[in-house]
Amino acid sequence: MDNRLITVNQLFNLLERHYQGSIEDWWPHESKHEIVIGAFLVQNTTWHNVELSLNQIRQKASFSPKTIRQLSQQELKKLIHSSGFHENKSRNIIEFFEWTKTFEDQYDKIKAHFGPSLRKELLKRRGIGPETADVLLMYVFNEPVFIADNYARRLFQLLKAPVPLTYPAVKQFAENNGELTVAEWAAFHGWIIQFAQQHLRPNQKASDHFLTGYQLIANHGNGN
Question: So what's the pLDDT on residue 29?
Fold first, then answer.
């Protein structure tokens, strides 16, 4: 049987229908500062480990950039020990909040200052790669971006997307062919993670699911 062809927006609709509506607070947080800290901590570890570290920071510093800047790196390392790589992560968090201090720790001021070059500026910060930059752009700076993480690339592979399975290529394909709001991109990200955790775990046997038989294509007249 031939594959049924779908666009990025149609894939979004299929996921929305299956998971029945929007995901509220996919990235739970008390403040955007907590999201920033979580984005650094989640690198190369599980969210469970991150939650343990966030609870420690909540008790000690209430996610206040000013309070975090007043901590020694040794103190912060102890607070985030459960997240692993605490030497680098503690330094990255402290240096990031030293940078935001210039803008009074206000993300709208940072966004207004850098405008379209914000992603490029974030990538200059220690410990921020493409995925972390896009997480911050969407969840902290409210920019409509696609997070082409491992889950997304596995899904694109499953759907035989006509694009190399690299972070930049998958991101570009999704953003060029998807017409979604910031909230919809955020929900899309959450649903992709849910789907991949259910159906695309490493070494998991292939099985039928609601996306079986679909193939992802570019919009008509849009090559990538």
Answer: 76
